[in-house]
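Lab notebook, bench 4. Still working through the backlog of constructs that have no structural model yet. Next entry is a single chain of 348 residues. Request: give me the structure tokens for it.
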Amino acid sequence: MEVAAAYPSFSLLHLRSRKSSTHSSLSRLCPYKGLGCSAYNQAVLRNPYSSAQNGFQCITRKRVGFSWPNFDLKLNRRCYDIKLSRNVVVRSQLAGTGTPDAAYPLSELKLGSKVRGICFYAVTAVVAIFLIVLMLVGHPFVLLLDRYRRKFHHFIAKLWATLTVSPFLKLEIEGLENLPSSDTPAVYVSNHQSFLDIYTLLTLGKSFKFISKTGIFLFPVIGWAMSMMGVIPLKRMDSRSQLECLKRCMELIKKGASVCFFPEGTRSKDGKLGAFKKGAFSVAAKTGVPVVPITLMGTGKIMPSGMEGMLNEGTIKVVIHKPIQGHDAGELCNEARNLIADTLGLQS
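Model written out:
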């Protein structure tokens, strides 16, 4: 009644309607309807460290009002904690996707390893640029005098690999006496753990032909060197390319050259030895040349697969096993894999 007397133009019914309309307009601003929270009496805080657990929290303010001619309409509301379970579900699903084998210790992610990796690639690039000139100069003579083995090019490749690896890593080689003579063609097979495996095998100085993806030949300098060395291109998912690759290997062996295979087909992600494919052993069985199994140890820890930009400290050990020979590709495959697996098992 006092309000009506002070403001004769307002009636109680008018006041109630104005109050009701104001409250309804404010309620539309609240993102959570039905919980009694308005845009004026809640503060939304999002904690970046605990948002997945607590979601959004409405914090109550005891007295918040809005202006009205000569009086305040006081609104006392209670806000409820709102937990967004969606955030928690997403985080829990992501947390379960990893596997222990897919992770590497944090010590391998140190800045020092990244710096070593940068220096490693800088050295290999500088050395390759200088040595590619020697390859280009000698390539015509190689095609005339040593078209299939290309020993001069492989000597340059050995020099390149040795100058690149020796400043950063220690290399131990066991069983050099088991390597066939330079004039004896053979099929070399090795486990595959890292990008460093190519460098390591090149340091042996044997003139064997690698098998590489066709995309690698497109890289400047490295691709040119691979072409001059006679590296065999392969399209992985193309069965026709695989057959042509095996035919090319047999032709080279008949001409007196050697070939080198990674029977696993790809680099191991967890350091475990994968299943061997029989292609390399079929070539050896059909041509009658010996198979030389080689075990590489340490390369996967120094430069893990998928982390080629890093170079950890460590020692690479190479074990060259005695040559094996036979006419059954399956038996050769099993025997070679068992030799490599036993050596890796002794190391672990």
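Notes after review: The chain is about 45% helix and 15% strand. The chain has a mean pLDDT of 76. Flag for follow-up if needed.
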